[in-house]
Amino acid sequence: MAGEDWIELKFRLADGTDIGPSKYNQSMTVSSLKEKIISQWPKDSENIPKTVNDVKLINAGKILDNNRTLAESRLPVGELPGMVITMHVVLRPPTLDKKSEKLQNDPPMKNRCACTIL
């Protein structure tokens, strides 16, 4: 039964490349799995996630919750014993920090007063 504690996963990125397959313990949390994915992310990729919140894992159409374990997140539909399970990896689009963007792109505001007499 010790072999059932491990699950073989492969991760499909948006550009069609794969990470894995590798075996993971089913007691591992989705958050720690995402950390491993980020560490194995292709370095020549255009978008590289920085935190686990930048990555979403999808298994059988369901987005996996960071606080759950792999055993809790598994959907047995379509899984065959000894087969590799493919999960899809989606990146959150980068969010722009409005304060830093404003400081970089907009000229500094000067306090000016203008009066027009008609």
Quaternary state of the chains: single chain
How many structural domains can be distinguished in the coordinates? 1
Q: How many helical elements?
A: 3
What level of helicity do the residues show?
A: 10-25%
Average of pLDDT: 79
Structural class: alpha+beta
Strand ordering within the main sheet: 2-1-5-3-4
Give a nutshell description of this structure:
It holds the Pfam family Rad60-SLD_2. The protein has 3 helices and 5 strands.
What does the secondary structure layout of this molecule look like, with pairings?
Layout (H helix, E strand, L loop, with lengths): L5 E7 L5 E8 L4 H10 L15 E5 L2 E2 L6 H4 L11 E7 L6 H8 L13
Protein name: Membrane-anchored ubiquitin-fold protein
Membrane topology: Lipid-anchor
Subcellular location: Cell membrane
Main features:
cell membrane; 3 helices; methylation; alpha+beta; single chain; Ubiquitin-like (UB roll); MUB; 5-stranded mixed beta sheet; 118 residues
Descriptive report:
The protein has 118 residues and is of the alpha+beta class. 19% of the residues lie in helices and 25% in strands. It has one domain (4-89): Ubiquitin-like (UB roll) (Roll). A five-stranded mixed sheet has the order 2-1-5-3-4, with helices on one face. A hairpin with a 2-residue loop joins strand 3 and strand 4 (62-63). Mean pLDDT is 79; it is low at 102-106.
